Amino acid sequence: MEERLQKIIAASGMMSRRAAEELIAAGKVSVNGVAAALGDKADAARDRITVNGKALAPPEEKVYIMLNKPKGYVTTLRDEKGRRTVAELVKDAGLRLYPVGRLDMYSEGLLIMTNDGEFAERLMHPRGGVEKCYRTSVKGEVSQAAIERLCEPMVIDGYRTHGAKVETEKLSQDGGVLVITINEGRNRQVRKMCEQAGLKVTRLQRVSEGGVRLGDLKPGTWRPLTRAEIKQLEHTV
Fold it and tell me: Is 116 among the residues known to form the active site?
């Protein structure tokens, strides 16, 4: 069956559909020895497709997992600075899995990983509307004004965010624990939102994404997503 080249390449797990489109436009993808153009189609079972001179491998079995990322790990497969990476925590999965989105080195919690490039790209798109929920420990005065500020749209790094949903889990004289839900994925967004509300984040844990919950998964461990969880995520995008 013929499909668009970028879809075939993304389905192989090699890269996202967008990255495949860029390589096709750059003339680095060929079908049966002929340079391909955007919009071209091919049959993965019949045609010889090469990317950067390398033959495209048959599609891998699609794998979807959740990792409870601990603090101190960077969300990448390889780090030039020699820091620990999330790839080290999923070696026993037996496949090369890519993180869907990011958690900074000092954040923790739910991180979805997969070899399905197209699925990952849809979930990661900043405007995809996938809700992400963070249990956020903060220092500072958690006043009604601060909570209202978090719920309002903000301008962060030149981008106007949507409003957040905020629930108070625990309050004290000098801080508290908030449950903050956003439907975007901007760099360090929750930390920067709290800063604008006069609060300092001391712990940030993602507890759910797209309705899929971290639950009691231990830090540093992973498990496969269930069929129901995969369908839930597909439904959100």
Answer: no
